[in-house]
Design brief:
Layout (H helix, E strand, L loop, with lengths): L1 E2 L18 H8 L2 E7 L5 H10 L3 H4 L28 H5 L5 E6 L18 E4 L17 E4 L2 E5 L15 H19 L3 E6 L21 H22 L8 E5 L27 H4 E7 L8 E3 L3 E2 H11 L16 H6 L7 E5 L2 E7 L2 E4 L1 E2 L4 H5 L19 E2 L5 E4 L15 H20 L9 E2 L11 H4 L11 E2 L5
The protein binds 2-acetamido-2-deoxy-beta-D-glucopyranose.
Length: 488
């Protein structure tokens, strides 16, 4: 279950004071909570590509080289997407007879060759892009929703989102899809992989009528409550069917809360610095809960440094499959952590576009580059660190620290506020170890072909497959590719 822009601090179990997530909190109490779990990138598309390939975005192509250290993703005008050369988790699970379904947001490219059913999934209900809009279908087409190979309508036309009230029924549709899929696989006695990638907590945030106005936290909280209720129903379904003990469930988020949309449409990163788009903890540390009654003991808290990329390797391991050996895989197998409560030593690398910005080893985090966003953007009110300016840390120029990385101790200082003195023994000791790990990492790094460099309005969702049946085909403009500009 992959949440969209949900922050570490959005769940009761992580300390959200409104305590509005009883089902997620119970899931945590019945399973294992991770305190130190990370995404592979502070933005949606690269993070999702990493989850499904077990590889850093710089390896799987989900980055740009148009400018240094820029976040890039897959808006409608993007030409690229997930390369055929990448092996996705569902492609491998097929070998063990799994039926694979994606519900919700794909975000790995929307052109025909990037369709999820061409990359290992058997079923899809959802959209290739974010639910932005409404658009005029002239300059920009409204985004399509698909059932399997074909579109079945467009956001705002056939799948309404009321931007004024925040009402939409999409989470209910995604819930129904999940329950139905699980039920069918149970009936057929088939192993299954459900990738439930819902997006109600991504702005424009939405909830269905029943949940609107029910949260202390405003519309964002309403969305969280509906998700919480849905997760509760999915876990209850597994239990009612008697397959809970045969089903490994993991919930996390694609990146930190989007503070740019807070407080009405953005979540909370609790004590962590900044949010989505940044390589500070608030951009990349995620809520994460593992649930598997009878296998993962209840009531555990793990400080294992985990990553969304580990879900690739761990899932393969639990399915009795090996990981690919013809390529670097960044995810590790967490099953000893989940099943035996062990911890495994491993670094965490924080990338923004084509640059390794920071690395975490143990409780130390070293920043090799710092950047929140440019002065130009900041002057326009775009702030990824609202209320959290820290001089020399949340910099508005890309500041290089490769000679003397900025070092923090995340145990004593989870908010990255107090850089450790360069002359201290702690600094000298930690940096030596970190530099040798970074050297090894960089020596083995072979960047993939960047997929997020070229944009073209001709490739937008004008005429997705199935549009003729619905009379929803639009005429694309002539092809005029350009180098996409990624402002931050
Ligand atoms: C959601 O579904 C209800 C019940 O079918 C309907 O009355 C309502 O108009 C729908 N809302 C939106 C925004 O689609």
């Amino acid at each position: 279950m992959l949440m969209d822009d949900m922050g570490w601090g959005d769940l009761g179990v992580y300390g959200q004071p409104a305590r509005e997530t009883p089902n997620l909190d119970r899931m945590a109490a019945e399973g294992m909570v991770f305190t130190d779990f990370y995404t592979a990138n502070p933005l949606c598309s690269p993070s999702r590509a990493s989850l499904l390939t077990g590889r850093l975005p710089i390896r799987n192509g989900f980055y740009t080289t148009n400018a240094h250290a820029r976040n890039a993703y897959t808006p409608q005008e993007i030409v690229g997407g997930i390369p055929d050369s990448e092996i996705l988790l569902p492609e491998l699970l097929k070998k063990a007879n799994y039926v694979n379904k994606i519900v919700g947001k794909w975000h790995l490219g929307h052109r025909a060759q990037y369709h999820p059913l061409r990359h290992g999934f058997d079923e899809w209900f959802g959209s290739p892009n974010c639910h932005f809009g409404p658009y005029d279908n002239k300059e920009t087409p409204n985004l399509p929703l698909y059932r399997n190979m074909d579109m079945i309508g467009r956001y705002y036309e056939d799948f309404p989102i009321d931007i004024k009230t925040g009402e939409a029924n999409l989470t209910q549709l995604y819930l129904k899809e999940a329950l139905n899929f699980i039920g069918r696989q149970h009936n057929d006695d088939r192993p299954f992989f459900l990738y439930w990638a819902i997006d109600a907590t991504h702005a424009p945030v939405y909830a269905s009528k029943k949940f609107l106005g029910t949260s202390q936290r405003g519309l964002y909280g309403d969305a969280v409550r509906e998700i919480d209720d849905s997760v509760g129903q999915i876990l209850a379904h597994l239990q009612n069917l008697g397959i809970a003990e045969k089903t490994f469930v993991f919930l996390t988020s694609d990146n930190g809360a989007a503070l740019i949309s807070a407080p009405n449409e953005g979540g909370s990163n609790a004590p962590f610095l900044c949010g989505k788009q940044t390589t500070f903890e608030g951009g990349m540390r995620e809520p994460a809960i593992a649930w598997w009654p009878g296998h993962i003991s209840a009531g555990q808290v793990s400080h294992q440094l985990g990553s969304v990329m580990d879900l690739f390797t761990t899932s393969l391991s639990l399915a009795g499959l090996g990981r690919p050996h013809d390529r670097e895989i960044d995810g590790i197998d967490l099953s000893p952590v989940l099943l035996q409560g062990k911890t495994i030593d491993r670094p965490v690398f924080y990338y923004r576009g084509n640059e390794m910005m920071a690395v975490r080893v143990g409780l130390h985090k070293a920043h090799f580059w710092t950047w929140s966003n440019s002065w130009e953007e900041f002057a326009q009110g775009i702030d990824f660190c609202p209320g959290q300016t820290i001089s020399g840390v949340t910099t508005h120029v890309q500041q290089e620290h490769t000679m003397l990385p900025l070092l923090f101790h995340l145990g004593r200082d989870p908010g990255e506020k107090y850089p450790i003195r360069v002359t201290s023994a702690e600094y000298q000791g930690a940096i030596q170890q970190i530099l040798s790990i970074v050297q090894q990492h960089q020596k083995r790094m072979v960047p993939g072909e960047p997929q997020l460099n070229v944009c073209d309005r001709a490739v937008m969702n004008w005429s997705p497959p199935g549009c003729e049946k619905l009379n929803k085909c639009l005429t694309p403009p002539a092809s005029k590719p350009w180098k996409c500009s990624w402002p931050h």
